[in-house]
């Protein structure tokens, strides 16, 4: 798994994905989420992988432990690099996810890293308090989810850049902080609430950044990607 910015391939289908990928002549780190996976199924993972890209399969599983375990066992055969669940599913569910992933990973192959979503980057503290009835600060809630993910032996979490440093302090530098909600300065925020720039993410302790519309919605995706890379790498 490389540490390039992860490009979110949030497209309706295979045609749009391969049209987009034509802009790039190098191996990338890409994210396949619900929108694409639910239209194209596991074949899209195999086809993108054939082009040599690292893959984050972002399906955010959240169900009873037995169901998540079986689903992870099936996903393990796809040979992706990173997969995830919702930490709100609980410790038992996260442990079951890990068991399934380990059981399904073919002998001799590296198991995908497993991370847990804490609070979505589209959520504000006010929303969390009123809609989820969690009476902590957003930072405390994210930190709590990170700690139970660590207790379940997961490899890290999805959080916003704003919580990344605190998680590294509490859970250790090697515990991954994968941060979506990345925007170029002055760019459209869309539905995201807890955002940061790629250089802000580097300074504030992200392990990996996820960038979708700032690149996929650009008139020049390659130029936008290069700008994100150079800010992220600090060049
Ligand atoms: O908390 C989360 C978890 C996942 N995402 C996903 O990341 C990308 C972000 O796309 P942008 O276009 O850069 O906003 C998207 O696929 C989300 O499903 C997230 O944003 N926040």
UniProtKB/TrEMBL annotation:
<dbReference type="GO" id="GO:0005829">
    <property type="term" value="C:cytosol"/>
</dbReference>
<feature type="binding site">
    <location>
        <position position="213"/>
    </location>
    <ligand>
        <name>substrate</name>
    </ligand>
</feature>
<feature type="binding site">
    <location>
        <position position="121"/>
    </location>
    <ligand>
        <name>substrate</name>
    </ligand>
</feature>
<dbReference type="InterPro" id="IPR014732">
    <property type="entry name" value="OMPdecase"/>
</dbReference>
<dbReference type="GO" id="GO:0006207">
    <property type="term" value="P:'de novo' pyrimidine nucleobase biosynthetic process"/>
</dbReference>
<feature type="binding site">
    <location>
        <position position="183"/>
    </location>
    <ligand>
        <name>substrate</name>
    </ligand>
</feature>
<comment type="subunit">
    <text>Homodimer.</text>
</comment>
<protein>
    <recommendedName>
        <fullName>Orotidine 5'-phosphate decarboxylase</fullName>
        <ecNumber>4.1.1.23</ecNumber>
    </recommendedName>
</protein>
<dbReference type="GO" id="GO:0004590">
    <property type="term" value="F:orotidine-5'-phosphate decarboxylase activity"/>
</dbReference>
<feature type="domain" description="Orotidine 5'-phosphate decarboxylase">
    <location>
        <begin position="4"/>
        <end position="228"/>
    </location>
</feature>
<dbReference type="InterPro" id="IPR001754">
    <property type="entry name" value="OMPdeCOase_dom"/>
</dbReference>
<feature type="binding site">
    <location>
        <position position="31"/>
    </location>
    <ligand>
        <name>substrate</name>
    </ligand>
</feature>
<keyword id="KW-0456">Lyase</keyword>
<feature type="binding site">
    <location>
        <position position="212"/>
    </location>
    <ligand>
        <name>substrate</name>
    </ligand>
</feature>
<comment type="pathway">
    <text>Pyrimidine metabolism; UMP biosynthesis via de novo pathway; UMP from orotate: step 2/2.</text>
</comment>
<dbReference type="InterPro" id="IPR018089">
    <property type="entry name" value="OMPdecase_AS"/>
</dbReference>
<feature type="active site" description="For OMPdecase activity">
    <location>
        <position position="58"/>
    </location>
</feature>
<dbReference type="InterPro" id="IPR013785">
    <property type="entry name" value="Aldolase_TIM"/>
</dbReference>
<feature type="binding site">
    <location>
        <position position="192"/>
    </location>
    <ligand>
        <name>substrate</name>
    </ligand>
</feature>
<dbReference type="InterPro" id="IPR011060">
    <property type="entry name" value="RibuloseP-bd_barrel"/>
</dbReference>
<comment type="similarity">
    <text>Belongs to the OMP decarboxylase family. Type 1 subfamily.</text>
</comment>
<feature type="active site" description="For OMPdecase activity">
    <location>
        <position position="63"/>
    </location>
</feature>
<feature type="active site" description="Proton donor">
    <location>
        <position position="60"/>
    </location>
</feature>
<keyword id="KW-0210">Decarboxylase</keyword>
<comment type="function">
    <text>Catalyzes the decarboxylation of orotidine 5'-monophosphate (OMP) to uridine 5'-monophosphate (UMP).</text>
</comment>
<dbReference type="InterPro" id="IPR047596">
    <property type="entry name" value="OMPdecase_bac"/>
</dbReference>
<dbReference type="GO" id="GO:0044205">
    <property type="term" value="P:'de novo' UMP biosynthetic process"/>
</dbReference>
<keyword id="KW-0665">Pyrimidine biosynthesis</keyword>
<feature type="binding site">
    <location>
        <begin position="58"/>
        <end position="67"/>
    </location>
    <ligand>
        <name>substrate</name>
    </ligand>
</feature>
<feature type="binding site">
    <location>
        <position position="10"/>
    </location>
    <ligand>
        <name>substrate</name>
    </ligand>
</feature>
<feature type="active site" description="For OMPdecase activity">
    <location>
        <position position="60"/>
    </location>
</feature>
<dbReference type="Pfam" id="PF00215">
    <property type="entry name" value="OMPdecase"/>
</dbReference>
């Amino acid at each position: 798994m490389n540490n390039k910015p992860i490009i979110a391939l949030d497209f309706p289908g295979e045609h749009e994905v391969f049209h987009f990928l034509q802009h790039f002549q190098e191996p990338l780190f890409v994210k396949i989420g619900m929108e694409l996976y639910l239209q194209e199924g596991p074949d899209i993972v195999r086809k993108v992988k054939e082009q040599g890209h690292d893959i984050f399969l972002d399906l955010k599983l959240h169900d009873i432990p037995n169901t998540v375990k079986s689903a992870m066992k099936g996903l393990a055969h796809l040979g992706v690099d990173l997969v995830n669940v919702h930490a709100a599913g609980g410790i038992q569910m996260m442990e079951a996810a890990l068991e399934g992933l380990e059981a399904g990973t073919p002998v001799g192959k590296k198991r995908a890293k497993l991370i847990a979503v804490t609070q979505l980057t589209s959520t504000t503290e006010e929303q969390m308090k009123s809609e989820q009835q969690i009476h902590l600060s957003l930072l405390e809630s994210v930190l709590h989810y990170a700690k139970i993910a660590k207790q379940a032996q997961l490899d890290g979490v999805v959080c916003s850049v704003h919580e990344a440093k605190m998680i590294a302090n509490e859970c250790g530098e090697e515990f991954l902080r994968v941060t979506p909600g990345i925007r170029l300065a002055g760019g459209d925020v869309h539905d995201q609430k807890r955002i940061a720039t790629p250089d802000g993410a580097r300074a504030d302790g992200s392990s990996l950044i996820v960038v979708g519309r700032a690149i996929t919605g650009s008139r020049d995706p390659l130029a936008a990607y290069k700008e994100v890379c150079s800010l992220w790498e600090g060049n």
